[in-house]
Design brief:
The protein is of the alpha/beta class and 250 residues long. The chain is 30% helix and 30% strand. Strands 1-2-3-5-4-6-7-8-9 form a nine-stranded mixed sheet, sandwiched between helices. Helix 5 links the parallel strand 6 and strand 7 (157-163). Helix 4 (113-123) crosses helix 5 (140-150). The longest helix has 17 residues, at 227-243. The chain is globular.
């Protein structure tokens, strides 16, 4: 509505960097050029900080990344995830939720954090041509709430990846409400993290299009311990989601 749009501020760019990445293509070496930058945007009077990487063309899909309590949005840049995906034609956005990283806390609690996620996605036009969201650790409850509320009415909300679905973050009712999530869903756990595996499998029994993948000999921060394997799993899931109709089960 015009009332909401009037309370948006345009993105203010910070630390814009041009990147050229070489890769093998058809037996030849090709250069992928893309931009990586930080920005702040004002939504409902609240400053939200994010990072973005893209080649500037129409993306294959948009990928939105959230972090856990021990990291900021820079983690996905540090382990190569953002550059890796941007070089393949994805638009990648890593958002810090209110009170996390450089995003300002909302002391008045004007709206739920899940609603901030929705407004941010709308503001940056991330739904088109499709959106996959990755959530981690303390971001999980807010992102899951967002998917429970909007997945069934948003066909362009194509995928959800959940890291460390710790059992104490969710109630049994949360998991029952998971039946409304229609996006293709992937739970990622460390192979030695039994709590995560138990919680993830409980979720997977309620979400129609879901599965669980475990990283052997790893605990909770497997993405930081072995980013090459993690990024490979992520790229395979994105390719999979791009080929799947929304209603088709895994």
């Amino acid at each position: 509505s015009s009332g909401i749009n009037a309370e948006y501020g345009g993105p203010k760019l910070i630390n814009v960097k041009h990147v050229s990445k070489s890769r093998k293509k058809g037996g030849k070496t090709a250069d992928d050029d893309f931009l990586v930058f930080e920005a702040k945007v004002e939504i409902l009077g609240n400053i939200m900080h994010y990072r973005e990487a893209s080649n500037g063309w129409v993306p294959k899909m948009n990928v939105m990344l959230f972090t856990g309590q021990h990291f900021t949005s820079s983690i996905w840049n540090d382990i190569g995830t953002m550059e890796d995906l941007a070089s393949l034609g994805y638009r990648v956005v890593s958002l810090e939720l209110p009170g996390h990283g450089l995003s300002r806390e909302d002391p008045e609690k004007k709206i739920r954090v899940a609603e901030y996620i929705k407004l941010f996605i709308q503001h940056l036009d991330l739904y088109r041509p499709g959106l996959v969201v990755l959530t981690c650790d303390e971001s999980n409850s807010n992102v899951m709430e967002y998917f429970i509320r909007y997945s069934h009415t948003s066909p362009l909300l194509k995928g959800l990846i959940v890291i460390d679905s710790a059992a104490d973050q969710f109630t049994s009712m949360d998991r029952v409400l998971g039946t409304s999530i229609e996006s293709q869903t992937l739970f990622l756990c460390g192979g030695t993290d039994s709590d995560c595996q138990t919680s993830a499998n409980d979720w997977a029994r309620n979400i129609p299009n879901s599965r669980v993948h475990s990283f052997s000999n790893a605990y909770r921060e497997f993405y930081n311990e072995d980013p090459v394997v993690f990024n490979t799993i992520l790229k395979r899931f994105l390719e999979y989601v791009a080929q799947k109709p929304q209603s088709e089960k895994i």
